[in-house]
Amino acid sequence: MKKNLFTYKKSGVNIDAANKFVNFIANISSRKKGNKKFNNIGGFGSISNLPSNIKNPKIVACTDGVGTKIEIANLLNKYDTIGIDLVAMSVNDLIVQGAKPLFFLDYISINKIDLKKMKSLIKGIVKGCKISQCSLVGGETAEMPDTYEKGKFDIAGFAVGVVDSKKLLNKKKIKKNDLILAVPSNGLHSNGFSLVRHLIKKKKINIKKNFFLKKELIKPTKIYVKEILSLSKINLLNSCANITGGGLVENLSRIIPDKLSAEIDLNKIKTLKIFKWLKENNISEREMLKTFNCGVGFCLITNSKNLNKICKYFSKEYRPYIIGKIVTGKNKVKLNGSIDWLQ
């Protein structure tokens, strides 16, 4: 009598579905021309070589997720963009050090493998890697039926990059009177969604029927790899910061050296419609600045003589502009004025 045998599949874990998903990842990630050196998805570990053209290589590694933006994807049943978010959140941290992203790995934990959903997610990750000029070399998918509710999942990303030690960007290069440039974001990126979702719930907003919110809340994070690496390559940057959770103050504080401060003129910040909408819904400016990028996705610190050269590397939509300068002081980041939310 074998009909009552216990199996992994009966417990909620489908290894056959997982294997099909791995094969899909291997096929889609190897389509990119020149990707054969990373063709080891499905093995126990991914093997790669360091670029031979870097004399003094330093390895830089980053990891991150997309937070509760996943719940927006679930609500809208749209999964082809949060994969881009996942890549962006790690590679945008790598380039802060001037590192070129080499490869990326993902970790997906889910209640039950839904091949259609997972394939859509992976397509986004592959697209994010293409934009970042790096390769998806592997990852892990864990089916966890009792840990996650039906339809729920989480994702994490891991990126590795390399930089020549002589081109490493750090706080030591920052000098008094350096300019602080804002590189525009394209929206919320992947931060502050718990607050956004709380607001939407309290106001009983149906984002499926609100075209503006539906479009803005699922919009993938801008990836700054191409522009920042171009500037780093020709030594136009002293340092930079990825403006994620914690806003301008927390993220700029990470890179400002002792005895110097970043003086920011909030009046100069060019914000976006989604942040204006949030501000109008009873969120204080202090909370906005602490939670969101408010329109500034990335900050560059450079000598004033480099301003015009730097701007040539960006499209009009993301062209950097001055929001402050480096001064003496111990405040790390000093905010002056107020954002013009009505502009």
Query: Which bin fits the share of residues in helices?
Result: 25-40%
Structural class: alpha+beta
Report the C-alpha radius of gyration, rounded: 22 Å
Q: Domain count, please report it.
A: 2
Give the uncertain stretches in residue-range form.
none
Strand composition percent: 15-25%
CATH class of the largest domain: Alpha Beta
Task: State the end-to-end CA separation.
Answer: 75 Å
How would you state the average pLDDT, rounded?
A: 90
Strand order of the main beta sheet, please? 6-8-5-9-7-10
The ordered string of helix (H) and strand (E) elements is HEHHEHEEEHHHEHEHHEHEE
Q: CATH homologous superfamily of the largest domain - what is it?
A: PurM-like, N-terminal domain
CATH architect. name of the largest domain? 2-Layer Sandwich
Largest sheet: 6 strands, mixed
CATH topology of the largest domain: 60s Ribosomal Protein L30, Chain: A
Summarize the structure.
About 30% of the residues lie in helices and about 20% in strands. By secondary structure, the chain is α+β, with helices and mostly antiparallel strands. Helix 3 runs parallel beside helix 4 and helix 8 crosses helix 10.
In words, what does this structure look like?
This protein has 343 residues and is α+β, with helices and mostly antiparallel strands. It folds into two domains: 15-164, 60s Ribosomal Protein L30, Chain: A; 171-187 and 222-336, Alpha-Beta Complex (Phosphoribosyl-aminoimidazole Synthetase, Chain A, domain 2). Helix content is 31%, strand content 22%. The protein is built from eleven helices and ten strands. The protein has helices spanning 15-29, 69-76, 82-94, 115-131, 193-202, 211-218, 225-233, 247-253, 273-280, 285-291, 307-311; strands at residues 57-65, 100-110, 135-143, 153-164, 179-184, 239-242, 260-265, 296-302, 321-328, 333-336. The strands form two sheets. It has a six-stranded mixed sheet, covered by helices on one side. α1 (15-29) runs parallel beside α4 and α3 packs parallel to α4. It is globular, with a radius of gyration of 22 Å. It starts with 14 loop residues before the first helix and ends in a 7-residue tail after the last strand. The model has no long low-confidence stretch (mean pLDDT 90).
